[in-house]
Design goal:
homodimer, Cyclophilin, five-stranded antiparallel β-sheet
Amino acid sequence: MRALIPLFWPLACLLAGFAPLSSQGVIDASRAEEWRPLVPENTLYMDVGGSTVVFELAPELAPNTVRNIRTLVREGYFNGLSINRVQDNYVVQWGDPDAEDPARQRKQGIPPTLAPEFGRPAAGVAFTPIPGPDGFGEPGFVNGFAATRRDGAVWATHCYAALGVGRAESADSGNGSELYVVIGHAPRHLDRNVTIVGRVISGVEALSSLKRGTGPIGFYETAAERVPITRIRLGSDVPEGGRLPIEIMRTESASFRDYVDARAHRMRDGWFARDSGFIDLCNVRVPQRARARP
Amino acid sequence: MRALIPLFWPLACLLAGFAPLSSQGVIDASRAEEWRPLVPENTLYMDVGGSTVVFELAPELAPNTVRNIRTLVREGYFNGLSINRVQDNYVVQWGDPDAEDPARQRKQGIPPTLAPEFGRPAAGVAFTPIPGPDGFGEPGFVNGFAATRRDGAVWATHCYAALGVGRAESADSGNGSELYVVIGHAPRHLDRNVTIVGRVISGVEALSSLKRGTGPIGFYETAAERVPITRIRLGSDVPEGGRLPIEIMRTESASFRDYVDARAHRMRDGWFARDSGFIDLCNVRVPQRARARP
């Protein structure tokens, strides 16, 4: 396939009088129906350390855990808690710093355990593959979320900005009350070992630029270092004027396929001296753009 | 090859009465000669924003650019300059903020252009492959540096913490006076488009946790935001008591091969519910440890 491209493109350009598009060119040429809005019920707004971080949830990939998180958020469970762990090139993690102390832990109205959603049967999940190879399985996307498919299963992938559910030793110990975001090179060894429930779509830099914790695995050593979370709200509980006015390119669209190809051929952007001819799953950043208000 | 492992390991364990080692187990069982010290001439110490960041240079992969950087460092070229760009999930970059103004730019005693060292002929370079697949070529290491080999060439790979040489449009415009470090998911589309000269071996968190720049491609918008560089010194100009007392596992050793395998099989570490059975090049962190002082 790859060998055909150098033969095919010059011929196509000669015949049709067009050059392959850069990634920006693909975005500019895309059709309105190749973009989708955010669903308010599937977005979270976290006010933390003076910034707002916005997440999109992935009920397609982890329906029960997403439901638990919605319950916790509506209860105000996270309000007043803190970021307690920042490990370089790995994760930022938040929750109740007293979670392991029964006398001091914050009450929550959901069960302490939950059957893990480390992956799902691939059948029935709308998975759009992108070109491989990929050492972990077949790379692709499910409704905007990086995912991997293999042996009849599909799972959300630990790319930069992925939102995951912390757990203890036992697989069912992650109920959504302890969350983390990836802030480094994709730790894909965590795939299928924890439940991923979404990704950051705005403000990840407010998490990734936090001071690293100096305790084991990046925990802050003192309470004073913890970064307070003012509140987390569900998008549907945010007044409409305060919601993030963006739209996201549909990863099942023809333009997204062309966009991925353009990102593997960066000479189309200028500056580049060589094309890699390949892009790995976690380097594909799904295009998003300002949405004209209706 | 992969299919053999499940057959082979239980048999081996049964016969020899041992279980495959975890990554820490491999490190503990390694022999002294599988580790190497740092060469002072190939290390840089950067004092910046109250921290010290230590780099190891890779003359095996970019001899002429490394030579230029040594000259610049010995001249004190970087002392008093600043970090001017911090782009989230991408790079931290430093140099002369007035480099494009002939009247104000800092003088330097090296030529403004240099033939790029985007890659080298693979022949004669001691390359240790690790298991693929890898979409960019054959993954491996050259003396501790992540590298990729393909079509008779070998090049240093843009993994987290890689040290690269900024350049303008023309390929020969990077002489080493403008440097950057990768602080996000490996941007391997940059491979063979810029010269990589080494990597951070200590203190990368002092760079990756910096406030992100809000200007285009992460440049700080005001001079006040820039992070001053007190000085950069060559390890051989640092008094011996001030040098980083570590040693690095030889990537051509048998223990390193076993370490890479252990990192693809994390169930050996406990906690993990599943092995990925694979690790990608940029997630392999070359082991380093405190070196007993002679």
